[in-house]
User: Which sequence fits this backbone?
């Protein structure tokens, strides 16, 4: 009976080991993607119409050093983003990255104008500070408003080893300047804190962690 029990434990040990290894091998160097950034806090100025998040950005890794960034507006009424209409213009929507972008192109939707930039490291983001290095601006004839979206292909100068969208020195991942708020045509600066992976990505990571825990527990019982 003892021998049978030990054999059974060895079989379970082998299955758990294989499953845990498969999960981590499958994940490889790719981090838990997609990542969602909810711009849902008022930094200063007027509060946008509707309910937060007013803007949502989603990043999906597509290769070792490439990914797609989808910008989506949940603004309502007459609220809109513009900005970066000139070299010194205020940014419309900006992010902070911990890796260098070597190329960026808009493939679909309400694309920002040609003055949008990356790795500038000094966009005019008003009272929020200028520690942002990826910026988007619409206009002078276009606006990013209710129901709009835009999809960008990003190419990084090096392989991604984690989420490239991180908090800057002031703790903000993203900032946007909303205009046309309410009947008085007010404006406000809205921000996003630390970005988080989607639940599906976290679930995969959690399952892998659980399997590793079972692996360790079974190994201890066999010794």
Assistant:
């Amino acid at each position: 009976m003892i021998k049978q029990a030990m054999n059974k434990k060895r079989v379970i040990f082998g299955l758990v080991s294989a499953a845990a290894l498969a999960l981590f091998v499958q994940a490889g160097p790719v981090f838990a993607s997609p990542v969602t950034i909810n711009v849902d806090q008022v930094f200063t100025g007027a509060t946008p119409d509707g309910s937060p998040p007013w803007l949502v950005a989603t990043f999906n890794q597509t290769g070792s050093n490439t990914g797609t960034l989808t910008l989506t507006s949940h603004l309502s009424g007459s609220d809109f983003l513009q900005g970066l209409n000139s070299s010194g213009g205020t940014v419309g929507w900006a992010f902070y990255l911990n890796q260098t972008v070597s190329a960026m192109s808009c493939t679909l939707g309400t694309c920002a104008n040609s003055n949008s930039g990356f790795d500038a490291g000094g966009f005019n983001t008003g009272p929020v500070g200028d520690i942002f290095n990826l910026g988007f601006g619409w206009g002078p004839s276009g606006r990013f408003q209710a129901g709009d979206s835009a999809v960008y292909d990003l190419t990084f100068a090096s392989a991604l080893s984690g989420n490239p969208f991180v908090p800057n020195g002031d703790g903000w991942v993203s900032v946007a300047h909303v205009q046309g708020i309410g009947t008085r045509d007010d404006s406000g600066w809205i921000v996003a804190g630390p970005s988080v992976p989607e639940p599906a990505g976290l679930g995969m990571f959690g399952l892998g962690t659980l399997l590793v825990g079972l692996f360790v527990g079974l190994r201890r019982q066999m010794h």
Q: What stands out?
A: The chain has two domains: 1-32+199-223, 36-197. DSSP finds two helices and 14 strands in the chain. The first helix runs from residue 2 to 27. Residues 1-32+199-223 form one domain.
